[in-house]
Structure formats: C-alpha cells, structure tokens
Design brief:
Blueprint: H1 5-18, H2 26-33, H3 37-49, E1 53-56, E2 61-64, H4 66-78, H5 81-96, E3 99-106, E4 109-116, E5 131-133, H6 138-144, H7 149-155, H8 173-186, E6 189-192, E7 199-207, E8 213-222, H9 228-248
Helix pairs in contact: 1-3, 2-3, 5-9
Amino acid sequence: MAVVPAAAQALAVLQYLGTQAQPAAAAAISRELDLPRSTTYHLLDTLIRAGFVVHLAEERRYALGVAVYELASGYARQTSLQRLARAPLAALVDNTGQNAHLAIMHGRDVIYVIEERATGRPPLITDVGVRLPAHLTASGRAMLALMPKAQVRALYADPGSFVLRNDRGPRSLSALRHLLADARHRGFASEDGEVTPEFASVAVAATDRAGYPAAAVAVTFPSAEVGAREQEQLAARAARTAAEVSRRLGAAAAEDHHAAASG
C-alpha cells in the first residue's frame, strides 16, 4: 500500500514534538525532519487547526495540542485500563476503608472509569462515566501536574475555562500553577470541598511507559473525619496503588512518578 507523503510528514512532525522536552521552533522542525520551511509551516497550520499542535506566539515555538491528549485518553480507555486497575483499586479500598476511584483526562475534564465504594460509605458524585472539571479535582490536578507547562497553558488559555462548582477552586492559570507546583512538591494532589461540600480527596497520577499521566488514583473521605497526618497516609497508599497501575501499564520506573490529586 502506497504511503501518503503529506500524512507521513504530519505524523513525523507530531512524533518529533512528542520527543522534545520543550516546545520547538519551526526552523528546528524543518531542519531535523529535512522538510522545506514552507512545507513545515503548512503542516503546522493544518495540525493547529485540528488541535494537535498549539503555537506559542510569545515564544515563537510549537508544542503538542489538546487533541493529542484526547487521543492518549482514548487509547487508555481502549486498552482495558479498567481491567488493569480494578484489583489494585479494590485493595486500596480494603486497606483504607474509604471510597476510591480512577479517572482519566479528556480535554479539560476528568472522566471517572472506576469507582470502588467502601462498606458503609455513601455514594459520591464520582460515579463511572461522570465528567468533572479537571482543575477542581484532585485526580485532574495530579495528572495536570505531570503534563508539560506548555500543555497546561494551552488547555487553560481562556479565562472562561475556570468554572467553579461550589464557589471554590482556582480562578486563573497562575492560581492553578501554584496548586500543581504544590502537588509536585508533596507528591500528591488534593481538594477539599471543591467537588462536594464536606468531602475531600487526595490523588496520585499513574503513568504509562512514556511517562504520560494516563490516569489518577484518588481516595475520597469526609473532611471532618481525616486530619492532615491521616491525609498523608491515605495519599501514600494511593501512591502505592498508582505505582502498581503504572507498572501494569508498562511504566519503566513507576515509583518515580510524583503527582497526585483528588476528586
């Protein structure tokens, strides 16, 4: 079967951007892929229109766009993530006595794909299939904390992206960045009352073999029942579960990932 040159070139651009630690200049893309500059700009423009690439005008550079992450989320859903993660999530609930769930990113939202309910604990909003704004949830913050800064900036370029549920949560990109930096520093992300009043969550991201945050493991609990020390213990258990999910996803060094969240 014949190769379509334009399609091969577009895929080469995406593959190149995916291997870079930072956004790349068009000149570098052209040089590294041995493409004419005019062809490079045409390819980038097409990929931008489709959401696979974003142009960072201030830096005059290009980075992967939201559509790439949506594809990655679709891949995670289609590779039986639920089957891989259900047993570790069930063990987490048995060990903590609290509700736990697994979520994936989809654009600026998280979608819950597993909910494991502890005996005697009330049902939560985070049922399977529910979507919530990622910046309000511990799960979303855990995954966002492991994404390149350029990707987070692209996701939240519009101030209108910062919707609130209970009049709580970050209202700007700078406020969100502060929360993500805190998640990276502590090794887990959290939220308290931003999704459901009187309930809090802690979460840690699970990564795939490329280091991409494919999902997040979260534990949710009544805020009044759990102090700061116990929250850290719950986060540590969530981290161990996320490491096991990462291992099952093929991550080379699951224990090295360091983000968490709740929601």
